[in-house]
Amino acid sequence: MKYVVLIHSNMQPWGHPTIDFTEVGRAIPADERAAMGKEFDELLAELSASGELVTGLALDAPSTARTYRWEGKRPVSTDGPYAESKEQLAGFFVLDCATRDRAEELAAKFAGPGDVIELRPEMEF
Description:
The chain has three helices and six strands; from the N terminus they run βααββββαβ. It has helices at about 25, 30-50, 100-110; strands at about 1-10, 55-60, 65-70, 75-80, 90-95, 115-120.
């Protein structure tokens, strides 16, 4: 079963890794942030080796987004993010896990300072 790990963050300025661009992340000493980064890289290597990591992307700033909505009889586009919100989608990873428990175990490891992690299963149809 595939699961998407959505990373929402309020980064100022926008950048990746998110820990370096959130207020709470910048408050962590640089050596601790580096150790956390190394631990995350090791997690990604482990998931890649096990075949559980399908893909992942860091997303550009919400201000670079283009939104499309259906109005009347045609799509209309506007600049900017989909929703006005303090936290925006910063990136995602797709995992292929045998069980929901395993996906939840892994999703918790993606939570970083200043981030909100959402785990959502793939919709099968």
